[in-house]
Amino acid sequence: MMIQRMKGKSATDEEDLRSRWSQHMDLRPGCLDPEGIEVRPVLGKEGISSLDPSPIVNNATAIFGPLIQNLEALGYDETNLLCMGYDFRITMARMEERDSYFSNLKKEIETCFRMYKKKIVFLGHSQGAIVLHYFFRWLGPSRQYWSDKFIDSVVAAAPTWLGAPEVWRGALIGEKFGLGSFLNKDWKQLLHHYEGLRTVAPVTPSAWDRYPQVFFRGEGKDKEKEKEKEFHLVNFETLEDHFFPHILPITRKAGHSDPIHFNICDRENPRLCPYPVKKMHVVLAVNESTEVGYFMCDHKGTVSLDKKAKGYDVGDGCVIKNGMIWETSETLQKLVDSKGNPLRRSGDGTVPWESLAFARFWRGQIPDLQHTELTDRIHAHLPCDTELFKILLNHAIGVDIDSNDLAVAADENATSDVLWYAGKDDEKGEEVEMKKRDIEGQEQ
Comparing C-alpha atoms, which of 42, 5, 1 is closest to residue 22? Predict the structure, then answer.
């Protein structure tokens, strides 16, 4: 269902359309459909090509469309180009329970393998990389044998390994995630019904070097409560417990009770274990300002960003703006490069760098693991990027593809600064190693 401003339509008509859209996209507790309504992902390439297939805005809302066209120009079709969209509103466990998603994915891969006698190259973008990881865990003890038989490699583009703070902020205090044209006045309640948001919210603190920060202060209406007006460092779940207990049975229970991904709260968390593959290429957009923390306040029982917060030390290279803490291209990370120089990086405008680059810990466990970092890109546009096309095609057909040979090119104004990690240094032929950097005392 699409909502467009049409000539002659009043604001009341548009609000009615938004209400109908929200009604169809809503879920009841337990991920149940509203009575008389059933919304499911569009199957095949049509479901992942663009947000709107109409000719006027198709290119402007493209997701995987240009990449699919390039593959089709090379002879790929629906028999060997498998597009598996999913319902982001629900948890991955419910994807299988309700839609048999992972059973169908396994069947499609095995059928393709039998038909062509060639292994599969997986591509997952953003949450899609987490869905792929869950799929391997879902396979159980036979995952390594199955992967060795059917999978050639995995390409992970802008993966949300450790989650993204803006998802938590958006679901709890308000963020429309680019859906402002569709959402009505009750949109916050709609998001609270989406168990799947927990999949891309920040994972357990022990997985992070610098866990997303939340500074909180109360109202402090009288002198005895004056200290409440000072900011205190808290964690996300503390605020959830205090201000949003009504959504906990849906969000936290749904996410943390899944033994495939969330049953252990440390580095051995199944979600953070390496893929059972021999080859993996992680492609990141970097050095965009990315939110990594917040200054929040309580005003009459309502949590909001404190846009007046300033002057606090939130880390080398981080800045405070409108109540939010942002990492920048000058933010000091807890790593050094192969030459021992401090590593200054930021994420892709949506996901912090540390979350994007978590696969660095899998070096040695995945034999051929490469990282490519691209500048002047953002999270949402990466699926349409020419560099990603070239990397994917190199994995799929084993040869380098020149940009001039692509049937559909990406934005020609985008510039590329490709940085390699956990691979070979082209100049010296040496292994590039990422090491933890001790910056004790330099963080708040």
Answer: 1
What is the rounded distance in angstroms from the CA atom of residue 280 to the CA atom of residue 252? Answer: 31
End-to-end Cα distance, the chain: 46
User: What is the structure's pLDDT at 30?
Assistant: 76
Give the integer Cα–Cα distance in Å for 404 and 290.
32
- Segment 76-85 shows an average pLDDT of 92
Tell me what pLDDT residue 428 has.
Answer: 32
Question: What's the farthest any 2 CA atoms get from each other in the chain?
Answer: 76
pTM: 0.83
Token pair belonging to 425: 């240094």
DSSP codes, 280-336: EEEEEE-SB-EEEEEEEEEETTEEEE-TT--S----TTEEEETTEEEE-TTPEEEEE
- The DSSP secondary-structure symbol of 278 reads S
Question: CA–CA separation, 379 vs 92, rounded Å?
Answer: 22
Q: What's the rounded Cα separation, in Å, for the pair 285 and 373?
A: 6
Separation between Cα atoms, residue 349 and residue 293, nearest integer Å: 13
Question: Three-state secondary structure along 334-400?
Answer: EEECCCCCEEECCCECCCCHHHHCHHHHHECCECEEEEEEECCCCHHHHHHCHHHHHHHHHHHHCCC
Residue with tokens 């948001």: 197
Say how far apart CA 374 and CA 230 lie, in whole Å.
40
User: Considering the chain, what percentage of its residues have pLDDT values greater than 90?
Assistant: 38
d(CA 215, CA 309): 10
The residue among 331, 113, 49 whose CA lies nearest residue 210 is 331
Whether 398 has a pLDDT exceeding 80, the answer reads no
Query: Using an 8 Å Cβ cutoff, are 166 and 175 in contact?
Result: yes
Residue 209, classed as helix, strand or coil, is: coil
pLDDT score recorded for residue 409: 55
pLDDT at 441 over 70: no
d(C-alpha 437, C-alpha 91), whole Å: 35
Question: Which band of pLDDT confidence, cut at 50, 70 and 90, is reported for residue 422?
Answer: very low
Alpha-carbon distance of 68 to 79, in angstroms, equals 13
More confident: 50 or 47: 47
